[in-house]
Design brief:
CATH architecture of the largest domain in chain B: Alpha-Beta Horseshoe
Largest interface: A-B, 32 and 32 residues
CATH superfamily of the largest domain in chain B: tm_1862 like domain
Shape of chain B: globular
Low-confidence stretches of chain B: none
Mean pLDDT of chain A: 92
Largest sheet of chain A: 9 strands, mixed
Number of strands of chain A: 11
Low-confidence stretches of chain A: none
CATH architecture of the largest domain in chain A: 2-Layer Sandwich
Helix content of chain B: 25-40%
Helix content of chain A: 10-25%
Largest sheet of chain B: 6 strands, mixed
CATH class of the largest domain in chain B: Alpha Beta
Structural class of chain B: alpha/beta
Number of helices of chain A: 4
Oligomer: heterodimer
CATH superfamily of the largest domain in chain A: Ribosomal protein S6/Translation elongation factor EF1B
Chain lengths: 217, 616
């Protein structure tokens, strides 16, 4: 029995289903693939799957992954071949192999975010972010709502592209198994303050990094 | 395909994956290389529609033809519907995101009467006029299929044609003839005339209906050589009929998200309340080897962990045990659970329960339907008290602690004694649990779900007047009173107002169309969803259009009255229905079809006897 990590992209139409749905999609895909997947031995046998870091509904990603176990040794090529045609539109597998890092190493995620609207208003968002000492947003969890200052948490916000009706920036957001900051919080803040269409933004998770800002891959 | 504005809309509504398509198993074709584009519309949410086996079958059947591209469309939930209206987004198909208006044929499946307003909502959202008479050649042909078409007279004016009976071959034939007419550049009227020659095609506008002063039907006159009686279409060789082994697998929560295999069609039981039991006659079963290999392929292609052997009464398949024996080795190896959703109390066996619970244990539901033997005899639910008790015992021995029981109230000949009998039946099951030395751990729970009986066309009870709302409320109150002493019995029942509406629509006529349209326009939609049900809108629409609901729902219909569905033939004759109703009045049961033939008439569709009676 050996653990395999499959890396994949979640793009296009596939951004509209949730993390929970994604788990079922992957479980069915593994089943269709015919791979010798290891099942838990309990009363209710199931495929043992761990997703590295959940992705919000509506966000695209180039760096998703999940782990499962195989009963036999198989090559990357064999695994990817078996998985062909088993997945919904927009889910693209990029690699399969032994897990190369532990989820607990993840500390940051690099996001590329494209906002649409009037140029001035979009520029205002960025300059407001840069000039403010603190940006307070309300974070809701199942149990409580807390006000947090996200200004100090978001690093390296850089504008990478501008046009008449859009603005693209990249930034590092805290991510990982212990603490996560959803970039949607920043976009909602921009939405409230400057009327940016939060849901219309393109949010792309580009890669994951450890505490030294080394890319995990 | 999905621009930024649309994406923003999708991310602002609940469960957006319902509106995007892209599931594994979707069929894509080049629109320039097909002749007929067909939108298969299910007038309810994605979750309900994607659980529907009929849609999977017809999607597969139509897409097998190179010249047809069948795509799916569902009713958007109210939040999405509002957003689409606000942003002028017309209703579109999921595969290619084409507006329905640009399709050749838009087919709705009518599974239940309370989805009629959703049909109107979907036409509205597509920018297609409601009434067939207001649509010229520039609009798609709007057609209906599904069980309700056995009497969809209340919505007949909205449809160009209705496809009666089984759709496998019928829908393809409709597309073929339509395509020929289209190539010849025929008018809509000429196209409808050509289509009306197909067995199973009913063109409502080809029938002129006259009413008497007392509002009943005076006469039904066919026009343009349309058949006087329209026969439903059936598949004669069902035994060898292939079924889809690769289907669209929804990503987001379909209600029944599992592989489904139809083991048989029709039903031998003849329960007098059950419309499906009569309109799907004659009984035909699929070959067991075809079922086994098809089920295996289906699981392999879809990745489902559960395969459901569906039908009206799966345990009536003559080779069911053999089939399960054949399926067990591979299902166990591939960790697929077998579900038998419609077992009968009278042939539920220990070996069946053992075979179906090998992998995972699912819930157990039994349907005694009535609380006393006398009433069960009236409705011809040939299940005895001993059988119910025996089944409960087997279930408890098999480790179940929770049993769900289905009943009805408002049945013909019902008294308060029968209502009490419902609770007594549940109580007896609980007593059995406690009396068993080898009972499972924990406490037993029996849920009784009591639906209000709705008389339906083509059943022996089609003549019977539904209990009025007041009487149903009294019966429901009495039921609760009886059940309150035992907290291990959980009672649920449905809203009598909803049942009244369903009863009106089920046996309604064409005079209802304007009222249905008005109800929709004043806010009625998703009528089968309790959070949306708007009884006041319906009552006002009925009143404004001179409709008296009691005329349709609560009145006994004399045998010689012309019913709105009398010019339609689903196999069973009115003569048989009258005879069987008479038997019910005397609490005389009928035997299952395979034991004795009562000449219901359905075998004429088959052109031979349904069973080899010499074997008995």
């Amino acid at each position: 029995m050996n653990t395999v990590r499959i890396k994949f992209q979640k793009t296009g139409l596939s951004i509209f289903f949730s993390h929970l749905d994604l788990q079922k999609v992957m479980q069915r895909a593994l089943k269709i693939s015919g791979l010798p997947v290891w099942y838990s031995k309990g009363f209710n046998p199931h495929i043992y799957m761990t997703f590295t870091l959940p992705l919000s509904l509506g966000h695209e990603s180039l760096c998703e992954s999940f782990d499962f176990r195989l009963e036999e040794e198989m090559t990357e090529q064999q695994i990817l071949k078996a998985m062909e045609g088993t997945l919904p539109d927009g889910i693209i597998l990029t690699a399969a192999g032994a897990p190369d890092y532990d989820a607990s190493q993840i500390k940051y995620a690099l996001y590329r975010i494209k906002m649409y609207g009037e140029k001035d208003r979009l520029m205002q968002c960025v300059s407001h972010f840069e000039e403010s000492d603190e940006i307070i947003v309300t974070k809701q969890s199942k149990k409580k709502t807390t006000d947090i200052n996200i200004k100090s948490e978001i690093k390296d916000l850089k504008v990478t592209e501008e046009s008449d009706d859009s603005l693209t920036f990249t930034a590092l957001f805290p991510a990982g198994t212990t603490y996560n900051l959803n970039p949607a919080l920043l976009l909602e803040y921009f939405g409230e303050k400057f009327g940016v269409d939060t849901n219309g933004c393109d949010v792309l998770r580009v890669n994951l990094m450890d505490e030294n800002l080394e890319i995990l891959q | 395909m999905i621009d930024n504005k649309f994406k923003s809309i999708l991310l602002s509504v609940q469960k957006p994956a319902r509106y995007t398509g892209g599931e594994p198993g979707c069929v894509y074709k080049d629109k320039d290389n097909v002749d007929v584009r067909f939108a298969f519309c299910f007038p309810d949410t994605y979750e309900i529609g994607m659980s529907h086996l009929g849609m999977k079958i017809l999607y597969d059947e139509l897409n097998k033809q190179d010249y047809i591209w069948c795509e799916r469309c569902f009713a958007p939930w109210t939040d999405m519907m509002a957003k689409m209206k606000e942003n002028n987004i017309p209703l579109y198909t999921l595969e290619s995101k084409t507006p329905l208006k640009e399709m050749d044929i838009v087919g709705f499946t009518l599974m239940y009467e309370l989805s009629y307003t959703n049909v109107l909502a979907m036409l509205d959202l597509a920018g297609i006029p409601f009434y067939a008479k207001d649509r010229d050649e520039s609009y798609p042909l709007i057609i209906a299929g599904g069980p309700c078409t056995c009497n969809a007279e209340p919505v007949a004016d909205f449809f160009d044609i209705m496809a009666l009976g089984e759709g496998e071959f019928l829908d393809v034939e409709i597309c073929r003839v339509y395509n020929e007419c289209k190539k010849q550049g025929l008018s809509k009227l000429e196209t409808l005339k050509a289509l009306s020659k197909i067995q199973g095609v009913y063109v409502p506008s080809f029938y002129d209906i006259k009413y008497k002063e007392n509002k009943t039907i005076e006469s039904v006159t066919p026009l343009y050589d349309a058949p006087v009686i329209v026969n439903k279409n059936i598949v004669k060789d069902f035994a060898n009929l292939p079924f889809p082994t690769d289907t669209v697998v929804p990503m987001a929560g379909a209600v029944h998200n599992r592989a489904m295999v139809e083991v048989l069609r029709g039903c031998i039981r003849g329960c007098r309340f059950c419309q499906a039991g009569f309109i799907y006659r004659p009984f035909r079963e699929r070959d067991k080897d075809l079922l086994n290999s098809g089920a295996r392929d289906l699981c392999k292609n879809t990745g489902y962990e559960e395969v459901s052997l569906t039908s009206l009464s799966t345990s009536d398949h003559s080779k069911l045990e053999d089939l399960l024996d054949d399926m067990l080795p591979w299902t166990q190896q591939e960790k697929v659970n077998i579900a038998l959703p419609s077992l009968r109390v009278d042939n539920f066996s220990e070996s069946l329960i053992e075979k179906t619970t090998k992998i995972r244990k699912s819930g157990l539901t039994l349907a005694p339907e009535a609380g006393t033997q006398r009433l069960r005899d009236i409705i011809n639910k040939n299940v005895t008290e001993e059988e119910i008790e025996k089944t409960a015992k087997i279930a408890f021995e098999g480790g179940y602690t929770h049993i769900k029981l289905y009943f009805m109230m408002g049945l013909p000949g019902e008294t308060m004694e029968d209502i009490k009998g419902i609770v007594d039946t549940a109580q007896k099951i609980i007593d059995i649990f406690w009396s068993m030395p080898n009972r499972p751990k924990g406490k037993p729970e029996v849920s009784i779900s009591v639906a209000t009986f709705i008389p339906k066309p083509f059943t022996p009870f089609q003549f019977f007047g539904q209990n009025d709302g007041q009487l149903i409320k009294e019966k429901q109150a009495y039921l609760l009173e009886c059940a309150k002493t035992n907290k291990r019995i959980k009672v649920s029942y449905n809203n009598p107002e909803e049942s009244l509406l369903e009863a009106v629509l089920a046996r309604g006529d064409r005079k209802l169309a304007p009222a249905i349209l008005q109800a929709y326009q004043s806010g009625a939609m998703f009528d089968s969803w309790y959070e949306c049900f708007n009884f006041d809108a319906w009552m006002k629409a009925f009143a404004d259009n001179g409709i008296v609901p009691e005329f349709y729902a609560n009145r006994f219909r004399p045998y010689d009255e012309i019913n709105p569905w009398d010019h339609i033939n689903y196999g069973v004759t009115k003569k048989f229905l009258i005879e069987d109703y008479e038997r019910s009045l005397k609490a005389i049961t009928s035997k299952p079809c395979n034991k004795q033939c009562y000449s219901c008439g359905a075998n004429k569709l088959l052109g031979r006897a349904c069973f080899e009676y010499s074997k008995n």
